[in-house]
Amino acid sequence: MPTFKRADVSIYYEEYGTGYPILLFAPGGMRSSIEFWANSPFDPTKEFAADFRVIAMDQRNAGKSAGPISADDGWDTYTGDHIALLDHLGIKQCHVMGGCIGSSYCLGIIKTAPLRVSAAILQNPIGLSQRNREMFFAMFDGWAQALKVQRPKLDDWALRQFRDRMYGGDFVFNVSREFVRSCKMPMLILCGNDDYHPAETSKEIAALAPNSQLIDNWKTPDVIGATVKRVREFLISHTPKS
To answer: What is residue 113's three-state secondary structure?
Structure first.
């Protein structure tokens, strides 16, 4: 069981295949962990391992990963883990793919370390709508309460500050519209279509990002094969030549 330790943080990860690396950020909200890929419309750990070195990880305090929690935690905390894992693995540059919350993780690492990323797949991006703020807060609170059963000394005030840093903003929570408008990173966006993953968020990212493509209908059984083929071709086309 490969585990990377960074100070008080322990990050569990798995690797599949060989070749140019893809770092995956799984769906699952605050519970984002490798197991969620198996229940996604397609599993990138299986679909892309023949062509790439696929690296999947459990986010801190999800799955088999763990770490401290403080009032200062937020999106940057996770980005720090992602970059540290790349450093640990000796990876200078990679593709990134994120589902759900993972799409915002992708945008975070692109903003913080743009030279580390060559292309991004955003699957079902999360985003704020007129009706879902309380849904995100409730999702966070459910995760926090489950953690408190195991760690009763966790501070409610610190958790509330952490929650507000994660979901108190707007758009995709992690980066601004201005950043996305200026971001020239090649992106393929697989459109969301529910309250946590509003279609309008996916379409706005695609409209703002100057080097993006949007797939609207991508996850029904009749088209999933074509979707996987298009994602693979997109990743291959943006893989740097050695």
So the answer is: coil
Provide the phi-psi class of 112: left if phi over 0, else alpha when psi is between -120 and 50, else beta.
alpha
Separation CA 242–CA 240 (nearest Å): 6
User: pTM for this one?
Assistant: 0.97
The pLDDT tens digits along the chain (242 residues) read: 699 999 999 999 999 999 999 999 999 999 999 999 999 999 999 999 999 999 999 999 999 999 999 999 999 999 999 999 999 999 999 999 999 999 999 999 999 999 999 999 999 999 999 999 999 999 999 999 999 999 999 999 999 999 999 999 999 999 999 999 999 999 999 999 999 999 999 999 999 999 999 999 999 999 999 999 999 999 999 999 87
| Cα gap 216→167, rounded to integer Å | 25
Please report, to the nearest 10 degrees, the dihedral formed by the alpha carbons of residues 75, 157, 137, 202 taken in order: -20
The tokens for 128 are 């704020």
- The residue behind tokens 């393929």 is 188
